[in-house]
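note to self: dont lose this again. the chain is below, predicted strucutre after it. 679 aa total, dont forget to put it in the shared folder this time
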Amino acid sequence: MASVDVGNIRNVVLLSHSGAGKTSLSEAMIFNAKHVTRLGRIEDGNTVSDFEPEEVKRSSSVQTTLIACEADGYKVNFLDTPGYDDFQGEVTAALRVVESSMILLAAPSGVDVGTERAWNMSTDHGLPRMFLVNKMDRENADFDRCVSEIQAAFGNQCVAFQIPIGNAQDFKGVVSVIHPPADVPAEVADQMEAARERLIEAVAETDDALADRYLEGEELTNQEVEEAVRAGILSGNLVPIVAASSTDNVGVEECMALVREFFPSPKDGVKPELATGGDGFEADPNGPLAAFVFKTTADPFVGKLSVFRVYRGVIKSNSEVWNSGRETAERIGQLYLPRGKSQENVTEVSAGDIGAIGKLSDTLTGDTLCLREQPVSFEAIDFPVGFYRVAVSPATKADLDKMSTSLARIVEEDPTLRYSRDPDTAESLISGLGDAQIDVAMDKIRRKFGADLKVKMPKVAYKETITQTIKSEYRHKKQSGGHGQYGHVIIRLEPMERTTGFEFGTEVVGGKVPREYFPSVEKGVMKAMDEGVLAGFPMVDMKAVLCDGSFHDVDSSGMSFEIAGNQAMRKGVADAGPILLEPIMKLHVTVPDAYTGEVMSDLNGKRAKILGMTPHDGTTEIEAEVPQGAVQRYSQDLRSVSQGRGVYRLEFDHYEPLPPDQQPRVIEEAKRAKEEEKV
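---
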């Protein structure tokens, strides 16, 4: 593969809601570049981009795929990202290594929540962007309506750069507004004239000198218009809108031409953020190496595959590089250009370009590769944090040995997943952005690592405590020939403040219980704390005081007093007004103002306590306390009531008494769970 000049490289992320046609567009692009000989279809499961079995099964992307298109001395690296919310981490990583974005929307449906999110993410990363109105061949497709919706939502700097010839089943091509043909089709001649006028007006608005000449009636030259368009797109003051039908491969080549001509190269685009601060550096292939790993996958053929972007210098096969973050050397074997499920071997990857390396020992997503003599470190990727949790367990004993290693590998592949163990419930937990992400992770573990894992909703870590002060007495006496067993204790149980845990004290006087038996009594009491009398949950926030008792010179022993302490505790708790405590979470929800009412209503149904509402620019942040058991599936609930526009974060806050009307349900569920565990 011939090396491409850095000025002719374009790195573009494809963004949209799920189903807008990013993968079909990628397929048409790579077909037009003659890298494949047939045009794959989502329905047939044979596209280059969606090659994983999990993607074929769902007819939807679940990971970012690199689609590199080379032609006419240019190389365009498209990053085809998932549109579904649960795979937002893939989008976040892709946004870090590109200079521009292409936002797709389906012509029949127009602007949707995915369009809004894509715009906001592009703005946050300072990326020049373009709108592609896709699926122009579909019923109810209307380019003019889509343009109006885009301008209403995002501003008049969004301007049509093409006019479609026909809509829906009559769509047969596009006419360029920026490069008008000599013979404009008669059916779009009037539209073309108005669009050209609007484009010139928008271009003039980006440059004061041009604006003055335009207002004075002076005609701008094509070269001036093109230069101003390029500058306007780079600054974000101009956003092209184009049209296509990716499945019919109509308008796709024209879209690619605009990408090459007007989107920035690595020389012109956003400079990378350095962990040490500063403005980054130029994309110079002759400088010292600086590369950033933005994606890690477990490939069944080459093992761990690290996908990277080179910002400076050249990385070569069969060389050695320095991982600055982990301060370790890495041996570089064969370099690859990933293209779907296949990898093309390459000898080097130069500044501005994207490639992959197999079998790096210590390098993970977010690491920097450089020269040991000239270290550099890029800012880590700020991945979204997922609060949707499930408990995971092996399906069979054979899967138990594979579970920990396979979960560690899948977390390595997707940093938005977290693997942990809950000390209160003794469950292994995996958390992520939603149920679809977890389902895909389990499918990958089964396929790649041969471990069959089951998932279910995690147990809620309820606790038990007491509400009254009482005294409890127990005499343990057993005679079976020879030495017997004797231990007699009277303990006082007292409720304590929340979060104070447990205390054990003694008030025995006169040696009624010898001091050497105090630890045994405490041990018996502590064992009883592990399992409450209501539903078997651990007991907390109480004090046990050994205040009296008696002993036998021959038959008393540590074991006897341990048993006595344990039984006195159990008996006493039952008489001390036992109650259940439930974990309360602190919830922060941010939603557009239009959905605040629905979110509040949903929270009220979850027994939430609203602490406050803070208005922002068009959104409201709601702060609430809500029982953990009510928000186990909140990612799905919020998506439903906010139409995918809400975001939230969740953290444990405190325990408080479970309402009496809820106790029978929790007790019954706990009993049923114990019976199921015995089976």
